[in-house]
């Protein structure tokens, strides 16, 4: 990788004193991944743990540091990879941790070392990116502080970390079989929501305030004990909040407290104050909270479901004002989650997010526009999600290696469509419900500016259109705008775009029946996934691949290509 | 592989007419392995199926044929292999289908083609050999008829096939986590026994004869419908019976009918008549049955548990005498399974098995004797099975490739012990319960004759010693003898050996507190597993590896070594 070496060379060229303060660190982690019994919501199931922990250990680093994670796969028969969500992997596309895309899955008993620079401070997380392993609990937090000597553009006295997720009692193996079955079987809603890997199934910490709920027993199992966030009065805390849910869109509120949004997906935003924040799967935020309320009470942290009829009870945690006891339940009812289908509320929040002054502005124009229509379709009795009527399937041999080596027949001859029919009625089920499968690989030229229009539509059933949070690997994008109905690219649509202070993000939602327009610069050679971050939707094909200037990618390490056609070719004497 | 070519050359050298009759066929199969919903015992679970079937398709061939199975792994995140149980793989050790031993597991979406000759007629089966995938339902029958123009040494009018197994409701993933857990969790007894993949949980087809049992409802699900074997009166049938259980030792009996044993593990035996036969996991038999009973009735085929306190109800099927209706339940009670701990009955059956005249006799003496003491042990709070106090762990890179390439540090420097302490008291728990893990690789010189003494002992708890059926890959062995207590190698033990007509087999049981002595010739270069065929016992380390004349192994196909250290070395320019 040469990165630590580069740092050394850099130091040698500079005054040592200056350098010592500025020098980025190499941070080493040795992880072992295994299945283990765990009770995330007090019901014992099998989770994927790291070093015997669930969620995995929090990585904490400073901007510019190089992270080394020596990952041993101790699963019995399953491969594994870890994706570092929000880290752009500039110059290290093979460390992006996407099976079948950036690397070969790490086989059982094998070790693979991820080495990458965390170049930008922010709130990130990591998670499995093979099959539905994220939904099996393979995730953890990755927090990057500003480089030594730098300062955040806002002040706070302390930090609280909230990694949010949802949890199913069925194993991911059963879930994957269900989603791939013919006839299709939907996996349903998650049984629980988790805060830092803990929840309570079939009971409520706030039963006194919740009709028909059973009060949870006093904690007997630390694995599902209520999460307590200790705070002191009259201080300001930075809450780092990220959602790695499989399915659920979430809303976070804290009783009696306002939240000031200051960061989204590792980028600073123009601060604004809200009562609650929405988090779609893949989102991360920092919000500031000031402990300016009655100090005799504790307060509920409440996380509920949005965007789908909520069949999963909110997750609750306790904001514990010192010196109150942690076990003192808040007197007031937990804040109510906004109605699941109050999209005006959702849009008000999402549309309000703008870049903080000083954020790099987008290029004024794009070189290319790719319009991606999301539809739900049928194929041979299976149900799929498709993009421009093609449902994504991943290859046996990861793209990064096979495209770099120019292996024949890696890609289908026909490139996927750049647009969809202008007359498509997004308010109705697809007129042609049948889809095909394909690789959905878009080849991007180096340093071109690309606009992507994500167009939502009606699903197979009438009057159904779901939210889809799309996540881009290897890049941040500017979210230029949102609109309802079909995108036309006309003056009215143009008027909805914000070229002045659009936020930089790596995840953006499309609202039901709506569109979202993103812009990014293809300045990071590699092969990058761009997909709906909802785990079952990705499993059902909702994604595309950006193969970006692969000829400019450096030598891909052998460990990342030691499978499939790349291994065969290299063993036969080919070179990377 | 050159085998079909060899056949052609052979034909070219011979008179065409003769050759046409004798020519072995290439038999091609295209299989896809996937997880799917299935109800083996009327409770729906996930099974591993082949081409949407469970059990997998039956392969039927003639001796001398070459089998080509093009196997696509359509599991989502799990590797897979298939072992062809009882096929010696002469000259094709890379096709033995043992992950981490003979080949790299086939990754999801990859295809691997097994090509091998079935050189010997007999009753075989195939099954997964990675993790505990056999217990997930990855198995099927493999039946080899005599070559064209040859005859079996016994006559029969028809055939019935009975592939027997047991079935757990917990997924193998949960089972593997349990067995690897600290503290250890035993998986318990299987929920059901299956005949040809079908059983009935929590009800009995013969409830009228079974105290406290519920009569099964009239079949509503063909996946668990009672198995019916249609026969005509006054005919002789060959029953091909094989056991691929995960745990259970079985006993098969058929109401009112005698069974004449004629084949064991693909070798003819001296025919003998019994009321019932024992089958340990890994065993296969052919028995002849003559339909000489009252033709107005149907008869029960009953399969019950032996060797462990039976907590699993017998599996029942119907022997349907034409022209009775298949649905006519037999009037008599199903034959009772002998008491689980009636080892005299078990030994009487097992000891009676002798080679049919004409079977190759064993060499009169052996060049080497390896004595393997089976003990149950503890390691760091885990429970293991050990051989000479070492519990087997498999490597990341399969042995066949790594040993063939002479990769450094593939094997531990110290070779495993060839014997155990003569003073070891097999009637007591191990005096030193602690074990270590190791590779347990025994290196065998070409064409040497090897004796193996399998010595059973007391487990960790007092007064517990279990049966263990040991299965050898790549070879048949002669079962020279059995004894109770510790093997001493003295005159009394020698007197228990049968050098005149010992049966050739690939699986042999050791009885509680007893020993079994096997002899085989190391005439098949390769790396071969030798292990207890009980799935959880193998998972817990109960096995050894025979690395046999690896320098004489032909070129291992790249597809079998495209993982781990062999892939890395070959990609770096090394040659196989």
Automatic annotation (TrEMBL), chains A, B:
- Tell me the keywords, alphabetical order: Copper, Disulfide bond, Glycoprotein, Metal-binding, Oxidoreductase, Repeat, Secreted, Signal
A Pfam family reported for this protein in Swiss-Prot or TrEMBL: Cu-oxidase_2
* Cofactor(s) the protein needs: Cu cation
Which E.C. number(s) belong to this protein? 1.10.3.3
| Catalytic activity annotation | 4 L-ascorbate + O2 = 4 monodehydro-L-ascorbate radical + 2 H2O
Cleavable signal peptide:
1-21
SUPFAM superfamilies recorded:
Cupredoxins
UniProt subcellular location:
Secreted
Which intervals hold domain Plastocyanin-like? 35-145, 161-323, 432-549
Q: Name one GO molecular function term.
A: L-ascorbate oxidase activity
What EC class is this? oxidoreductase
GO BP of this protein: negative regulation of defense response to virus; response to hydrogen peroxide; response to virus
GO (cellular component) term, any one? plasmodesma
Which CDD domains does the UniProt record give?
Answer: CuRO_1_AAO, CuRO_3_AAO
Q: What is the annotated quaternary arrangement, including any partners?
A: Dimer.
What role is this protein assigned? May be involved in a redox system involving ascorbic acid.
Name the family the entry cites: Belongs to the multicopper oxidase family.
NCBIfam families with a match to the protein in the record: ascorbase
- Annotated protein name in UniProt: L-ascorbate oxidase
User: What is the organism field in this record?
Assistant: Miscanthus lutarioriparius
């Amino acid at each position: 990788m040469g990165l630590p070496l580069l740092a050394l060379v850099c130091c040698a060229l500079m005054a040592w004193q200056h350098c010592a303060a500025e020098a980025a660190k190499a941070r080493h982690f040795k992880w072992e991944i295994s299945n283990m019994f765990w009770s995330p919501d007090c019901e014992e199931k099998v989770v994927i743990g790291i070093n015997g922990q669930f969620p995995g250990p929090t990585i904490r680093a400073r901007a510019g540091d190089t992270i080394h994670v020596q990952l041993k796969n101790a699963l019995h028969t399953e491969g594994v990879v870890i994706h570092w969500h929000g880290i752009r992997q500039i110059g290290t596309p093979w460390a992006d941790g996407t099976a079948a895309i950036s690397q070969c899955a790490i086989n059982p008993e094998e070790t693979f070392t991820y080495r990458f620079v965390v170049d930008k401070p922010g709130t990130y997380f990591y998670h499995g990116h093979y099959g539905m392993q994220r939904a099996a609990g393979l995730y953890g937090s990755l927090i990057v502080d500003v480089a030594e000597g730098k300062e955040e553009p806002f002040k706070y006295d302390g930090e609280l970390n909230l990694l949010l997720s949802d949890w199913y009692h069925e194993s991911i193996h059963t879930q994957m079989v269900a989603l791939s079955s013919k006839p299709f079987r939907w996996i349903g809603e998650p049984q629980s929501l988790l805060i830092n890997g803990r929840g309570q199934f079939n009971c409520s910490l706030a039963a006194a305030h919740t009709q028909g709920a059973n009060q949870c027993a006093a904690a007997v199992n630390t694995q599902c004990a209520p999460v307590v966030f200790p705070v002191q009065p009259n201080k300001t805390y930075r809450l780092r909040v990220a959602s790695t849910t499989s399915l659920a869109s979430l809303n976070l509120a804290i009783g009696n407290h306002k939240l000031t949004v200051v960061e989204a997906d590792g980028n600073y935003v123009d601060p604004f104050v809200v009562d609650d924040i929405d988090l779609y799967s893949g989102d991360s935020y920092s919000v500031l909270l000031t402990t300016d309320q009655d100090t005799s009470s504790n307060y509920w942290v409440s996380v509920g479901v949005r965007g789908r009829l909520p069949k999963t009870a909110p997750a609750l945690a306790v904001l514990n004002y010192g010196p109150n006891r942690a076990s003192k339940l808040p007197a007031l009812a937990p804040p109510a989650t906004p109605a699941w289908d109050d999209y005006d509320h959702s849009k008000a929040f999402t549309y309000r997010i703008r870049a903080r002054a000083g954020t790099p502005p987008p290029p004024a124009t794009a070189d290319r526009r790719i319009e991606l229509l999301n539809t739900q379709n049928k194929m041979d009795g299976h149900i799929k999600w498709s993009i421009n009527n093609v449902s994504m399937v991943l290859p046996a041999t990861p793209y990064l290696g096979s495209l770099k080596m120019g292996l024949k027949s890696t890609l289908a001859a026909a490139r996927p469509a750049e647009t969809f029919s202008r007359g498509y009625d997004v308010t109705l089920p697809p007129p042609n419900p049948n889809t095909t499968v394909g690789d959905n690989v878009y080849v991007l030229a180096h340093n071109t500016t690309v606009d992507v229009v994500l167009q939502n539509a009606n699903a197979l059933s009438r009057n159904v259109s779901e939210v889809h949070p799309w996540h881009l690997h290897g890049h941040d994008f500017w979210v230029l705008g949102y609109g309802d109905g079909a995108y036309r690219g006309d003056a009215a649509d143009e008027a909805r775009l914000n070229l002045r202070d659009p936020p930089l993000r790596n995840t953006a939602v499309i609202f039901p029946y709506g569109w979202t327009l993103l812009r990014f610069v293809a300045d990071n050679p590699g092969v990058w996934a761009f997909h709906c971050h909802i785990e079952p939707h990705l499993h059902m094909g909702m994604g595309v691949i950006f193969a970006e200037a692969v000829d400019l990618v450096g030598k891909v390490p052998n460990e990342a290509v030691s499978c499939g056609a790349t291994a065969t070719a290299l063993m036969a004497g080919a070179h990377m």
